[in-house]
Amino acid sequence: MNEGGLTRRQGLAAMAALAGNVWLPPARAGQLEEPLADSVRTALSAAIANGSPPVPEFHDTERRLAYLRWLGANSERLRRRKPDFQTRIEFLQTVWYETRRAGLDTTMVLGLIQVESGFRKFAISSVGARGYMQIMPFWSRLIGDGDVGGLFHMQTNLRFGCVILRHYLDRERGNAFMALGRYNGSRGKDVYPNAVQAAARQWAHPDA
C-alpha cells in the first residue's frame, strides 16, 4: 500500500486517469453481450430511439445560472483536449443533457469518458468499442438501428453510453462500483472503477 492507502495497481490506474490516458484492465475491456429479456430490450430501445435535441431546459433562473457556471468551468478544463470553443460547448451541453436524461452523475460520466477514450470522438479499442464512451458494436444491433457507424456520432454515442450505464446501475441496484465494472467487462475488479473515480475528481464542480 502507498501513503494514500492505494495498492500499486490502483495507484497506476489513478495516475493514468489523471494523465488523460485510456486505462483498461488487462483481462478484458468493453461491455459483454448478455441475453436481454424482451421487456428490457424494448425499454432500452425506446430510450435510445427518443431523438430529442440535447438542449437543457431549466425551470428557474438559478438552475440555469448553475448550469452556466458548470459549463464555463469545464469548458476551460476541456480546452486542452478540445481547442475549438463551439465543439467543446456542444460536447459538454450534450453530456449534461444525456446524463440528466438517464439519471446519472454527470461528473462520473465525464470521468468515464476520460478513461475510456480520452475525449476522442473516433477512438476505437482493441476489441472494437467505439467513440467517446466506447460502445461495443453489438449494442447497435440489440437496441439500435444496426448502424455501427452511427456510434461515432456524438449524441448517439453519449445516448448509448448513458442508457447502458443506467441499465447496469439498475442491474446492480445502484452500486456504482459494480456497475462501472460491468460497463468495462471487469465486474468485481477494482482497477477500472478506481480509475473512473480518480478521473471524475478532475471534473467535480459545486454546480454539477
UniProtKB/TrEMBL annotation:
<protein>
    <submittedName>
        <fullName>Soluble lytic murein transglycosylase-like protein</fullName>
    </submittedName>
</protein>
<dbReference type="InterPro" id="IPR008258">
    <property type="entry name" value="Transglycosylase_SLT_dom_1"/>
</dbReference>
<dbReference type="Pfam" id="PF01464">
    <property type="entry name" value="SLT"/>
</dbReference>
<comment type="similarity">
    <text>Belongs to the transglycosylase Slt family.</text>
</comment>
<feature type="domain" description="Transglycosylase SLT">
    <location>
        <begin position="99"/>
        <end position="189"/>
    </location>
</feature>
<dbReference type="InterPro" id="IPR006311">
    <property type="entry name" value="TAT_signal"/>
</dbReference>
<dbReference type="InterPro" id="IPR023346">
    <property type="entry name" value="Lysozyme-like_dom_sf"/>
</dbReference>
